[in-house]
């Protein structure tokens, strides 16, 4: 007569141990997922903070140089704006305006010479442009920061308002507007930090039902 085969039985202690092991595995997976998510958020926050301080440093340096130029007087302000690639909106408008021929057939070189002189000396040519007008589409944009500091600067100067935008490749920008007073002082009209939304991909697909 054949002997019956023995069956493996899991007792209460073995079953309880198996449940504990499964719970520990689930908790480990959840902890790893949470840690990776917190690391990603921390890295993004650190990058944002670093970019904010870089923009603030560049803008504060620019304002300090404008302040020093106003104190020095002369062509110092024009030199500072030229170094940052900030164009004079009024000078550009005067240079682009059509010149009527004079009675003796000349092309009116005097107007071009006046526009060139205003661009070199930083003196604004009077026109009907409102103070603080928006920058034109052909605003000059140059890199004025060190090579390891990818900040670009663009802006305009209409004779009383200096508008400068400090931008980074990530889409974070700092807009600064300075109103120059007649007594050689200035006041800050705008100091605004914005972040442009960058579409990195299709993102997650949400279930619409």
Describe this structure in words.
- With 209 residues, this protein is an alpha+beta fold.
- It is built from four helices and six strands.
- It has helices at residues 12-72, 76-83, 89-96, 109-121, and strands at residues 87-88, 141-143, 151-157, 161-168, 172-180, 186-195.
- Strands 1, 2, 3, 4, 5 and 6 form a six-stranded mixed beta sheet that branches.
- Strand 3 (151-157) and strand 4 (161-168) form a beta hairpin.
- Helix 1 (12-72) packs antiparallel against helix 2 and helix 3 runs antiparallel to helix 4 (109-121).
- The longest helix has 61 residues, at 12-72.
- Rg, rounded, reads 32 Å
Helix/strand order: HHEHHEEEEE
Q: What is the overall silhouette? A: rod-shaped
Mean pLDDT: 74
Please give the largest β-sheet: 6 strands, mixed
Count the beta strands: 6
Strand fraction: 15-25%
Low-confidence stretches: 99-111, 113-147
Helix content: 40-55%
Number of helices: 4
* N→C terminal distance: 64 Å
Helix/strand-derived category reads alpha+beta
